[in-house]
Amino acid sequence: MNAPQTHRIPPPDGSREPLRTNVFDAMMVANTQLAPLFPYFGEGAMVPAGAIMRGGEDVTYGQFFHSNTVDEVVIVFGAEGSFTDTGFVFVGANTHGVNSFLKSEQDPNSFNLVTITQRQRVGQEQKEAVTLRCVKCKEIVMQLAFDATPPPASHRADPQGERAFATLIHSAQAAAQYNQSEASRTCTKCGTLNPRFPLERWGWTTYAIQSRTAAEARRALERTAAEAR
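The chain above was modelled as a monomer; its predicted structure follows.
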């Protein structure tokens, strides 16, 4: 008879200090959809991110498609008038449509608050892509593929020294490229001029700008401290 196997969780290695947050409090002050709840994006890290949507007059979130080589687990922490019920948990397909999940985006009483969590790969590539399709024929109008391979676990920042979530930085770039002109939004297959993507509703540009500013402010403080010493 084989002896039972034991599984031991290794002790913390010091690369990621244990942190906690309340998702409801965090999303009150979030500046973007898919807001990272913790500053860890390295190999092996669990990366939970929050999204909060609400309907209203003239509200539209549009739709895009996201591809990811790692799974994304969605937990609905609260919803009303949504296609996803409170307490619902699901794993999205590796390529999936992304929208508000609200049954009527013009209903001011409809809302949802969710987290989307992925685990960063260890020693393997991670690839992602953001795709916007024609509203009429569903042909790809714009697609931005990018390398989302995480840095080593001990490295909290990206190569530019900014503690930013790559998905958000590249999503902002993709939407900006799509919105830059009528030509960039015109379907080459059926000729439809697609509407602008409501980038301001998603907050990715604000996140990208504030991430860059925070990183530069951190470096300014470090320079000043070094000079004082």
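Residues 23-228 form a domain with the Jelly Rolls fold (CATH 2.60.120).
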